[in-house]
Automatic annotation (TrEMBL):
Protein name: coproporphyrinogen dehydrogenase
Its EC number(s): 1.3.98.3
Gene Ontology terms describing biological process: protoporphyrinogen IX biosynthetic process
SUPFAM superfamilies with a match to the protein in the record: Radical SAM enzymes
PANTHER family in UniProt: COPROPORPHYRINIGEN III OXIDASE, OXYGEN-INDEPENDENT COPROPORPHYRINOGEN III OXIDASE
Enzyme class at the top of the EC tree: oxidoreductase
Cellular component GO terms, alphabetical: cytoplasm
Keywords associated with the record: 4Fe-4S, Cytoplasm, Iron, Iron-sulfur, Metal-binding, Oxidoreductase, Porphyrin biosynthesis, S-adenosyl-L-methionine
InterPro entries reported in the protein's UniProt record: Aldolase_TIM (IPR013785), Coprogen_oxidase_HemN (IPR004558), Coproporphyrinogen-III_oxidase (IPR034505), Elp3/MiaA/NifB-like_rSAM (IPR006638), rSAM (IPR007197), rSAM_sf (IPR058240)
Keyword Iron-sulfur (UniProt): yes
Catalytic reaction list: coproporphyrinogen III + 2 S-adenosyl-L-methionine = protoporphyrinogen IX + 2 5'-deoxyadenosine + 2 L-methionine + 2 CO2
Pfam families hit by this protein: Radical_SAM
Tree of life domain: Bacteria
Length: 343
C-alpha cells in the first residue's frame, strides 16, 4: 500500500494491480458462479423449501423476481436480458411467473409473508402499468407483503416517467434503484444508453414526492470514453440529486461472453491505473459529502439503516447486495433467478 488517503481507504500498489489485472468471478455474491453445479436438482430444492418448518428460528421470506425485458441493449450489460418491444412476450412471462410461484408455494413451509420483495432485470419498468399491476397481483395473492417490509424495484428513468413512479408506489413498492452508470454524453453514446440528467432527476424527484422511503443510484466505472475528469462531473451531478444510497460497480469487459460488449472499442476503455483513480476519486468525493463507504461497491448516507448497521456490526450481504435483512430465506422467480434457502 502506498498512499494512505481517501477517507480511510488506502490506494493499492499500482504494480501489484497490473500484475493481477485478470478476469475473475464476480465478487458480488458467494458462492461465486463457477462453484455452481448441475448435481443440485429439483428434489434438493423441494427439500430445502419443505425444511423451513424444521428450523429452530424460521427465517423470514424474501422474494426476487427477474424481469428480463429491455427496449434496447446497453453495450456494457452482462445481465440476463431479452431485447424486444413486443409486450405479448411480457404478458406471457407474467403468467409463467405465476405458475412458478405456484410450484414454490406447493412445497414451501414456514412463514409465506414477504419481508422483502425485489424486482431486477433486465428492465422491470419495461412492463406497462397494467402489467405491473398484474405482476403484483400475481405475487401478493400467493405471498402477501409484510406490514413493514422492504419492497424494491430497479428502474430505468427512460421508461419511468413520474406517472409510472406514482403507480409503483400505489402498488406497494417503497424502494427504488435507479440505473444511471454515467451522465457524460460521450460515455452514454459509447454504451448506447442516452439518458439525460434531467430525465433521471425527474424520476427520482417523483419518487420522493410520492413517498418512496429510499432511492439508490447505480454507477459504473471503467466504461468507454470515461476519464477521471468526466466522471468527476458525473459525481457532481449525483451529489446534486443526492440519492440515499449509491452503488459504484466496476465494468467487466468480457466480449467473448457478452455479445453486445463487442461493440465497445477496447481502445476507448480506461486503463487499470485510470480506473483505480476514478474509483478512489469517487470514494473521496462521496465520503466527503455525507456518504459512508459501506464496502466493495456501496455507499449510504450517514443516517441510512445500512450505515447504522455497519456501525453496530449487524450489516450482512446476500445475492441482492448489502442488507439489514440478509437473514431471510430468498426465493427467486424467473429466468436466471438464484434462490438461497437455509444457513
Amino acid at each position: 500500500m502506498t498512499t494512505p488517503e481517501t477517507s480511510g481507504v488506502e490506494l493499492p500498489d499500482m504494480d501489484l494491480l497490473r500484475k493481477f489485472d485478470v478476469p475473475a468471478p464476480r465478487y458480488t455474491s458467494y458462492p461465486t458462479a463457477d462453484r455452481f453445479h448441475a448435481q443440485f436438482g429439483v428434489e434438493d430444492y423441494e427439500r430445502a423449501l419443505a425444511g423451513r418448518k424444521d428450523a429452530k428460528d424460521p427465517a423470514p421470506l424474501s422474494l426476487y423476481v427477474h424481469v428480463p425485458f429491455c427496449n434496447d441493449v446497453c453495450y456494457y450489460c452482462g445481465c440476463n436480458k431479452i431485447v424486444t418491444r413486443d409486450h405479448s412476450k411480457s404478458r406471457e412471462y407474467i403468467e409463467a411467473i405465476g405458475m412458478e410461484a405456484d410450484l414454490v408455494k406447493a412445497h414451501i413451509t414456514g412463514s409465506q409473508e414477504l419481508e422483502q420483495l425485489h424486482f431486477g432485470g433486465g428492465t422491470p419498468t419495461f412492463l406497462e402499468n397494467d402489467e405491473l399491476e398484474l405482476m403484483m397481483e400475481t405475487l401478493t395473492k400467493r405471498f402477501p407483503l409484510a406490514e413493514k417490509g422492504e419492497f424494491s424495484i430497479e428502474v430505468d428513468p427512460r421508461s419511468t416517467p413520474p406517472e409510472k413512479v406514482e403507480k409503483l408506489r400505489q402498488l406497494g413498492l417503497n424502494r427504488m434503484s435507479c440505473g444511471v452508470q454515467d451522465f457524460n454524453p460521450d460515455v452514454q453514446k459509447a454504451v448506447n444508453r442516452i439518458q439525460p440528467f434531467e430525465q433521471t432527476k425527474a424520476t427520482i424527484d417523483a419518487a420522493r414526492a410520492c413517498g418512496f422511503e429510499s432511492v439508490n443510484m447505480d454507477l459504473i466505472y471503467g466504461l468507454p470514453k470515461q476519464t477521471r475528469e468526466t466522471f468527476a462531473k458525473t459525481i457532481d451531478q449525483v451529489l446534486e440529486i443526492s440519492p440515499d444510497r449509491i452503488a459504484l460497480y466496476h465494468y467487466a469487459h468480457l466480449p467473448n461472453h457478452f455479445k453486445a460488449q463487442r461493440r465497445i472499442l477496447p481502445a476507448d476503455l480506461p486503463g487499470t491505473v485510470e480506473k483505480v483513480n476514478i474509483m478512489f476519486d469517487a470514494i473521496t468525493r462521496l465520503t466527503a459529502n455525507g456518504y459512508r463507504y459501506i464496502g466493495m461497491d456501496h455507499f449510504a448516507k450517514a443516517d441510512d439503516e445500512l450505515s447504522r448497521a455497519q456501525v453496530e456490526g449487524t450489516l450482512q450481504r446476500n445475492f441482492q447486495g448489502y442488507s439489514t435483512k440478509a437473514e431471510c430465506d430468498m426465493v427467486a422467480l424467473g429466468v436466471s433467478g438464484i434462490s438461497k434457502i437455509g444457513p
